[in-house]
Amino acid sequence: MEPILIVPGEVELAVVAAMIVFGLALAIAGHRIWKGLMGIIGAFLGFVLGYTLGLVFSGELAGFLLGIIGAVFLGAVFYRLVSTGIALVIAAAAFILLYQLGAGVLISILVAGGVFAIVFLGFERLIALFTALTGASMIAWGLDFLDVPAGFIVLAFLAVAAVGAVFQYLDIERKKKTPVVSHASIMKIDVVKRCPTCGQVLTYVPDYDAWFCYSCGRYS
Ligand SMILES: [Zn+2]
């Protein structure tokens, strides 16, 4: 099996060295540096893609030029849009895995595209998109039964799909924004505290973050 992407020999050693350094850094402080790491992964991926393209269509010089452009571009994309970068990396991994297993370029690209959509959109949004399209198809199908003109059916399909998808996306956003009561405040409310003076149960007042005793009439 031919390798899909070409890495120049000089770069290979640097890649190995970088992998050892970043492997250590990742193991020790992964959660602190992962954004920068995504940028580096993007830069590397961009370089390999650019170099491969340049080499295939022109030669070594074009390879290095395109590689550098690709590295800067994808590096910036990955650093800025970490979630997009992660989706791209996972999709690329799926593509390479399938291709190496002999699935053929087209199928590999299709599956990788699907994987990208799932990771990028999130499962919930993907379901929303799928149901919007399915619902619109059912309406189009029903209208076809009623001998409605084709142009109108197409319009109805597009309108229902677009409105449905937007409506569902907004609904998902709204649901995500609903404030979640923090763990700390749940604990405070659940705790039963008693007044050190009279022994009555104290009431927690979130506005003052303090406990009030109604029988003594003062904060404890
Ligand atoms: Zn009291």
Protein topology:
Blueprint: H1 9-57, H2 60-80, H3 82-100, H4 105-145, H5 150-177, H6 183-190, E1 203-205, E2 210-213, E3 218-219
Antiparallel strand pairs: 1-2, 2-3
Helix pairs in contact: 1-2, 1-3, 2-3, 3-4, 4-5
The protein binds zinc ion.
Zinc ion is lined by residues 195, 197-198, 200, 213, 215-216.
Features:
220 residues, 4% strand, binds zinc ion, flat
Structural commentary:
This protein is mostly helical and 220 residues long. The chain has three domains: 9-119, no CATH class; 122-177, no CATH class; 183-219, no CATH class. The chain is 75% helix and 4% strand. A three-stranded antiparallel β-sheet has the order 1-2-3, with no helix packed on it. The longest helix is centred in the first third of the chain and has 49 residues, at 9-57. The N and C termini lie far apart (76 Å). The site of zinc ion has 7 residues, from loops.
Shape: flat
Residues in β-strands, percent: under 5%
Percent of residues in helices comes to over 70%
Strand order of the largest sheet: 1-2-3
Order of SSEs: HHHHHHEEE
Given the helix and strand composition, which structural class is it?
A: mainly alpha
List low-pLDDT spans: none
What is the average of the pLDDT values?
79
Number of strands: 3
| Number of DSSP helical runs | 6
Provide the number of structural domains.
3
The description of the largest β-sheet is: 3 strands, antiparallel
Radius of gyration: 28 Å
Write out the distinct hetero groups bound to the structure: zinc ion
Question: Distance between termini?
Answer: 76 Å
